[in-house]
Write a structure and sequence with these properties.
By secondary structure, the protein is an all-alpha fold. It is built from 4 helices and no strands. Helices cover 75% and strands 0% of the residues. The longest helix has 95 residues.
């Protein structure tokens, strides 16, 4: 137990004089020491509480910053996903347009070839039929004269 508080070479400037009191005799000096120790404990507890509060605030700020970073990363991820989907849709539309363009070219070529066939008349279609006649037609062609019954093409030219 503390008997006295020696302040001769180390005067206290922090605690107020009301806490320290007067050290005139031995009992008052002991009371003074106890009062100063109680005051210092209370001050130390208050400072520790303040330090804990500051640490908690720092942790809360750090956690909020971490959540904000995660939110921003998620937004960036969603933005990249949206951009990728848009690029994919544009590419799909481009391929679709190219396909439709190619389809229109083929239709145009088919219609032009049909017009040419119509201009040439029956000769082209007849020559195609003569190039690849059915077998029964081929046999009739070899052994008969006149026109082929299936195509209407003359058998002898």
């Amino acid at each position: 137990m503390l008997k006295w508080l020696d302040l001769k070479e180390n005067p206290l400037t922090y605690p107020p004089e009301a806490v320290v009191g007067l050290c005139n005799n031995d009992t008052k000096c002991r009371e003074c020491a106890v009062q100063v120790l109680d005051f210092m404990r209370k001050e130390n507890a208050a400072q520790e509480k303040k330090r804990q509060k500051e640490l908690e605030e720092k942790r809360a700020k750090k956690e909020a910053l971490k959540r904000e970073l995660e939110r921003l990363e998620e937004m960036e991820k969603m933005e990249r996903k949206r951009i990728k989907q848009e690029e994919k849709a544009r590419e799909k539309a481009k391929r679709r347009a190219e396909f439709e363009e190619e389809l229109m070219k083929q239709k145009k070529q088919n219609s032009e070839s049909q017009k040419r066939d119509d201009k040439d008349g029956c000769l082209k279609s007849a020559s195609l039929k003569l190039l690849s006649p059915p077998i029964n037609c081929f046999l009739r062609f070899r052994f008969s004269f006149g026109t082929c019954s299936c195509s209407g093409v003359p058998t002898r030219l």
